[in-house]
Design goal:
The chain is mainly beta and 71 residues long. The protein is 10% helix and 20% strand. The protein is built from one helix and five strands; from the N terminus they run E-E-H-E-E-E.
Amino acid sequence: GDCCSDVGCSDLPPRSLKTQSQARGVPQEARRGPLVLSGDRLLFAPGLGLDAAACTLPGRTRRSIRWEPSA
């Protein structure tokens, strides 16, 4: 499955999206939406936001992503 690093803890091993979402108290309905990948690397997951390690890639332009589900 897809994995995500803890925000601010990019040196820790990644955890599954389900485990990460449950640990952060993200409701199941907030987890629906697209996953954003760069190659095999997960950059963004709805309800969790950007991968902490992806926010600090050297030489890359900083971007922000916000998922707004349709009503």
